[in-house]
Design brief:
This protein has 15 helices and two strands. By secondary structure, the chain is an all-alpha fold. The longest helix is centred in the middle third of the chain and has 27 residues. It is globular and about 60 Å long. The C terminus is likely disordered.
Length: about 350
């Protein structure tokens, strides 16, 4: 255990995590909200990265899984007074069922059918949400019943609790992605995404691998969405069930580095502060200016860092770790062996 902690690959991220946790109670409400959104989009970015990065299948409908993870527990809370902790299970099952259906149909086909199908699903859910006003509140949305400080119902007197919940989820999902990245399932999904014919020639069932990856992606997205619903208290169908949110979900992985473990985290760490700060500084004075700035950042990264931010930062980060205590075997650096007489 001591040898593991002596590696800078372990103690540097661990120190950053401890610092992040310790600093959170002193964040202003604005920066605490920013930290919560960063964790949320890091989780959603990880989820999208499974099918969009490793599986190389463009999903434009991940907001549908957010909608199911948010609406299903909220509606069950309103109808049956069921805690969102239990409702989250039903939201995840609903998301998995939709992913299974879409994947089962589209992964049999070639071309852009998967992207079109995911776009159709989010569009369909959006209009269903608007149509069934008695159930979903229609265009006005639906509110989470306020219960005061009630941890059993994921309602708290301070947003700091949501920060810690999402932090635990983000750390857990990142750990899962590290294991997934080096697992047989991860290698099979990556192979299926890069060259489906070659993967099939060595015995990989590419349709089944992508299907399971898509279902895993949907479940993670829906789980985080349940916490998100309790955090915002009101579900707006023009944001929660909309293609705009789907684009925001995929950007952290695309910008940070698709098919990498840390890409979604780095991408969210860049995009969320840019969007939040631009909206605060420019949104009230110059309408739409924050969207222009946000889009400019995305364009510049895609233009000059096509492999994502992690691709170039990873090399500098490895060099930095190699200079730290315990970093002798990182980046090809090793201590010279003493010549024996």
């Amino acid at each position: 255990m001591t040898a593991v902690l002596a590696s800078p690959r372990i103690y540097v991220p661990l120190a950053a995590l401890i610092l992040f946790i310790a600093a959170a109670p002193w964040f202003s409400p604005f920066y605490l909200n920013m930290a919560i959104l960063f964790l949320l989009f890091a989780i959603w970015g990880h989820a999208w990265n499974i099918i969009g990065g490793y599986g190389n299948s463009l999903s434009l409908g991940h907001a549908a899984f957010v909608a199911l993870g948010a609406y299903v527990p909220t509606l069950m809370l309103r109808a049956f007074d069921l805690t969102p902790i239990v409702g989250a299970v039903f939201g995840m099952l609903a998301a998995i069922a939709v992913a299974a259906f879409v994947g089962w149909v589209t992964f049999r086909l070639k071309g852009a059918y998967f992207a079109i199908a995911t776009l159709a699903i989010i569009t369909l859910l959006h209009y269903l949400t608007l149509h069934f006003r008695g159930l979903t509140g229609g265009a006005q949305g639906v509110s989470v019943p306020f219960r005061g400080h009630d941890p059993l119902y994921l309602q708290f007197s301070s947003n700091l609790y949501y920060f810690y919940i999402l932090l635990v989820m983000a750390v857990l999902v990142t750990w899962i992605m590290q294991r997934f990245d080096r697992s047989q399932f991860g290698y099979h999904l990556r192979a299926a995404g890069q060259d489906e014919a070659a993967a099939q020639s060595i015995g990989i069932d590419t349709r089944q691998v992508k299907l399971w990856g898509f279902m895993m992606s949907a479940a993670i997205t829906a789980a985080a969405a349940t916490v998100y619903a309790q955090f915002i208290y009101h579900l707006d169908p023009f944001y929660v069930v909309h293609i705009q949110l789907s684009i925001l979900i995929l950007l952290p992985a695309v910008i940070g580095g698709p098919a990498t473990v840390w890409g979604p985290v780095v991408g969210a760490a860049l995009l969320v502060p840019v969007e939040q700060l631009a909206q605060r500084e420019l949104g009230g004075t110059y309408a739409g200016a924050q969207l222009i700035l946000y889009g400019l950042v995305v364009i510049l990264v895609l233009r000059y860092l096509p492999e994502g931010i992690v691709g170039i930062l990873g090399r500098y980060y490895s060099r930095l770790l190699a200079r730290l205590p315990g970093g002798d075997d990182i980046g090809g650096k090793s201590k010279p062996r003493r010549q024996s007489d």
